[in-house]
Specification:
single chain, alpha+beta, Immunoglobulin-like, five-stranded mixed beta sheet, four-stranded antiparallel beta sheet, about 20% helix, flat, Phage gp6-like head-tail connector protein
Length: about 270
């Protein structure tokens, strides 16, 4: 898992027509950033090791990065992607909690990045079931001409700003149903037109219920076992009731986790 500010290493082997590692005459690296702009970090030539090109790129944006490294003499091309996580990407549980749950010594760090990915995935599974838990800011645009706007994430902690037809709306001009995530115009309807209303708000919970944290840890444990199982790709569950498929989804969630999460929130799962 790469965070904003981390250095991502682009490493590419260059081989000639015979398949032997060879130093190219020229090399150009192009990275397309999440905002659509491109950068061209210099490629050190000759490399420290014959045919092994290495470029360390300090990340500055969150999101999908696409890179392409092209060489001449020999002519080669290599393309790949890497994702950078937002610095404010929160999880339901900490890395320390996950390691303790899996009985991994705190001093052992070899699996930390993989575990952070599991934490992010488990958080998404829980929030798909119960709604927003981790505090995050969202910006959404709506078509107008109606009295109520249904926000995509609930419960809502606060509304930061509402802009209607280019003008900021005073908080007295709307009423928020925080639990349902519905924003209602106090007088009539929102201004008509496509993309007429933009809402900036914060969704999540001020405190994480213990049941949600425990469910996340159970899901993380399930992912950990599945990743390390050597028998036909299935974890050594030892209990046929452990995993259940969530309706409308392609993944399975341990039944113990589902019991802790309770019934899905309408419109979420």
């Amino acid at each position: 898992m790469i965070d904003v500010g981390d250095v991502y290493r682009v490493a590419v082997d260059v081989r000639d027509a015979d398949g032997t590692l060879a130093n190219p005459a020229t090399a150009e690296l192009t990275i397309t950033l999440p905002d659509g702009t491109t950068v061209n970090p210099p490629v050190p030539l000759p490399p420290a090791e014959t045919g092994r090109l290495v470029v360390d790129y300090p990340t500055s944006q969150a999101g999908r990065h696409v890179y392409r490294l092209v060489t001449t003499g020999p002519v080669t091309a290599h393309a790949d992607v890497f994702d950078v996580a937002d610095a404010d990407t929160g999880g339901l549980v900490s890395l320390a909690d996950a390691k303790q749950h899996l009985n991994i010594p705190a001093a052992r760090t070899a699996d930390d990045e993989e575990l952070r990915g599991f934490i992010a995935a488990a958080t998404a599974v829980v929030e798909r079931h119960v709604g927003a838990v981790v505090r995050r800011e969202h910006v959404e645009t709506f078509d107008g001409g109606r009295s109520a706007l249904i926000l995509s994430h609930a419960p809502v902690l606060s509304v930061t700003q509402v802009v209607e037809a280019g003008a900021a709306v005073d908080p007295s001009g709307y009423v928020l149903d925080a639990a349902a995530g519905v924003l209602v115009r106090t007088a009539g309807c929102w201004a008509a037109g496509p993309h007429a209303v933009q809402v900036t708000y914060v969704a999540g919970r001020t405190a994480v219920p213990a049941a949600y944290s425990r469910a996340a840890l159970i899901i993380i444990g399930h992912m950990w076992e599945t990743q390390r199982n050597t028998s036909a790709g299935r974890p050594p569950l030892g209990d046929t009731d452990l995993a259940a498929t969530v309706p409308g989804s392609t993944y399975s969630v341990p039944r113990r986790a589902l019991e802790l999460l309770g019934d899905p929130v309408p419109g979420v799962a």
